[in-house]
């Protein structure tokens, strides 16, 4: 099943094409590269609305060309959540809007549990970036959210999002660490979580230059994380942006690790964003395990 993040009001994909996307972030219009938009642009007219355009560099990275004055940062809202947006030197803005569909799923699951049980709900968010899922889980009533990312600067950004959402009185633990090492320590500590969310990178280096490749290490990561699930879990959610990583491999991984040992079911699909000028924009894939109801 594919899922489309169509609940936005302050964000939209205006148009796509020529390996680019034109987006409105609240009142700011940005033009950025997107390798999956392989079709031609229908009409150039809308694209002239861009307040800033990101240009790739032949040496890696790139830079923003501003057409109109653009603030260093501003906020954007989704339902009752708000997030800091800031164009970075690597084209990102600090938020992946397609993940809103997963936030909705997460919030619904937590609220349903809280409505029918007094048991505390504990959520683990791995490769947690600036905390979209962290804020969603906390806002929905999770008693504790543990947010883990290896980047100190990105975790600082997530803390800003906590303050923007007025969640200072909630229990959110921000941890700067290598994810797999943290997970193995949590296993030794006997810690358990009711929901696990992860968004692992396609490729990278660890703090000691260890090579990370998703296709080589996803199965181990899922297997280790599954050991952290409580006896009465809500979900296990994996996002993936690795080009060419098949849905069938995601489904088989979650089936072997979770369904074969705990029962329940697995759903996989594409994350999609609606495009105002027509069509959709593919934004990676997801795999989701839920226990038997």
Estimated helix fraction = 25-40%
**What is the terminal-to-terminal distance?**
19 Å
Strands in their spatial order, largest beta sheet: 1-16-17-15-12-9-10-11
| Helix/strand order, N-terminal first | EEEEEEEEHEHEHEHEEEHEHEE
Low-pLDDT parts are none
Structural class: alpha/beta
The shape is globular
What is the CA-atom radius of gyration, in angstroms?
19 Å
Nearest-integer average pLDDT: 95
Count of strand segments: 17
**Biggest sheet, in brief?**
8 strands, mixed
Number of separate helices: 6
Strand content: 25-35%
Description of the molecule:
The protein has helices spanning 100-116, 132-139, 152-164, 179-189, 214-226, 247-262, and strands spanning 3-4, 11-17, 20-25, 28-33, 52-56, 62-66, 74-78, 81-85, 122-126, 144-149, 172-176, 195-198, 203-205, 211-213, 235-240, 265-274, 280-290. It is α/β, with parallel strands linked by helices. Strands 1-16-17-15-12-9-10-11 form an 8-stranded mixed β-sheet. It has a 5-stranded mixed β-sheet with strand order 2-3-4-5-6, with no helix packed on it. Strands 7-8 form a two-stranded antiparallel ribbon. Helix 1 packs parallel to helix 2 (132-139) and helix 5 runs parallel beside helix 6. The two termini are 19 Å apart.
């Amino acid at each position: 099943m594919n899922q489309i993040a169509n609940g936005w009001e302050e964000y939209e994909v205006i148009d796509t094409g020529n390996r680019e996307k034109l987006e409105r972030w609240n009142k700011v219009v940005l033009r950025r590269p997107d390798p999956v938009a392989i079709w031609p642009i229908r009409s150039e007219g809308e694209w002239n609305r861009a307040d800033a355009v990101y240009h790739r560099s032949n040496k890696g990275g790139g830079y923003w060309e501003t057409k109109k004055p653009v603030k260093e940062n501003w906020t954007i809202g989704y339902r009752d959540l708000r997030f800091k947006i800031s164009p970075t030197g690597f084209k990102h803005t600090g938020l992946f809007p397609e993940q809103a569909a997963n936030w909705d799923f997460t919030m619904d699951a937590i609220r349903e549990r809280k409505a029918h049980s007094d048991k505390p709900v504990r959520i683990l968010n791995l490769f947690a970036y600036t905390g979209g899922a962290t804020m969603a889980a906390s806002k929905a009533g999770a008693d504790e959210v543990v947010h883990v990312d290896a980047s100190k600067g990105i975790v600082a950004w997530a803390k800003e999002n906590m303050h923007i959402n007025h969640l200072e009185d909630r229990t959110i633990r921000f941890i700067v660490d290598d994810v797999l090492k943290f997970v193995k320590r949590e296993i030794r500590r006997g810690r358990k979580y009711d929901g696990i969310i992860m968004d692992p990178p396609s490729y990278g280096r660890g703090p000691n230059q260890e090579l990370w490749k998703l296709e080589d290490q996803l199965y181990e990561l899922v297997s280790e994380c599954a050991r952290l699930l409580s006896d009465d879990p809500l979900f296990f959610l994996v996002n993936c942006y690795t080009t060419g990583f098949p849905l069938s491999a995601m489904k088989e991984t979650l089936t072997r690790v979770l369904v074969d040992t705990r029962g329940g079911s697995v759903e996989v699909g594409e994350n999609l964003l609606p495009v105002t000028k027509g069509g959709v924009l593919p934004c990676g894939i997801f795999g989701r395990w839920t226990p038997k109801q």
